[in-house]
Write a structure and sequence with these properties.
4-stranded antiparallel β-sheet, 1 helix
Length: 234
């Protein structure tokens, strides 16, 4: 599933566009009939649904607190989990219907060079908020059916810095001009340039290229161009 523009998205099946939908739609991985329209309506800066659509992880738009909601009982009280490192989609991701991974604020981790990302550690938890496993310090995490991808950051090389100096207006310089996002699918042993976005139905990672506007598979093939966000659903 692919998001394009600011007012509508494009729905794809087998590589062909078959319809449109609002770009503020959040869908469940294992069922398009389960969805949330515009999480901001109930105080979420960003949200993600469990694969079966029965639970929602909401990141508060006020204090970056991760909250677990039961979509079957919207009026029931929510479970406050922890403070996450940012309000980006990669701050929390579902492993399965009972477990999720989140980048929980951890002051023992080093500060990142990217503005807006606090030091955080990837943590696997269950629906009761119990910690099952703690992982490395990262910026974000994306989970698939059987695999996960970590998001990190690396400094740009001299050639990229030269390009920034020549082509960009120095008045708008920020930390994103000095670094680029990276991803790893082997628990941080090796890192590759680009921002991890989602795992497709074959558990292949799709990532946004570090430079340019392509979305590529982890094997280097171009999957989409001119894409802002992607969600995958059966």
């Amino acid at each position: 599933m692919e998001y394009l523009g600011t007012d509508r998205g494009v729905k794809y099946e087998n590589g062909h566009a078959i319809g449109h939908f609002p770009t503020n739609l959040v869908v469940a991985r294992d069922g398009q009939k389960r969805f949330v329209v515009d999480p901001a309506n109930h105080g979420c800066a960003t949200a993600t649904l469990s694969p079966d659509g029965r639970h929602e992880l909401c990141i508060s738009d006020r204090n970056d607190t991760l909250v677990l909601k039961d979509t079957r009982h919207p009026n029931a009280s929510s479970l406050r989990i922890a403070q996450v490192a940012s309000d980006t989609p990669s701050a929390a991701s579902w492993v399965d219907d009972e477990r999720f991974m989140a980048v929980i604020y951890d002051k023992t981790c080093p500060f990142t060079q990217v503005y807006g990302y606090e030091p955080a550690r990837v943590t696997t938890m269950d629906l009761a908020g119990r910690v099952l496993e703690r992982g490395p310090c990262v910026l974000g995490v994306v989970a698939g059916k059987r695999r996960s991808a970590l998001m990190g950051v690396a400094k740009n090389g001299w050639w990229r810095n030269l390009r920034q100096t020549i082509s960009d207006d120095p008045r708008y310089y920020n930390t994103f001009d000095a670094v680029h996002m990276t991803w790893s699918v082997d628990d941080g042993k090796t890192w590759h340039p680009g921002m991890p976005l989602v795992f497709d139905g074959n558990d292949t990672l799709l990532y946004a290229a570090a430079f340019g506007d392509d979305v590529r598979t982890e094997y280097g093939q171009v999957a989409f161009t001119h894409v802002g966000e992607i969600q995958w659903s059966r």
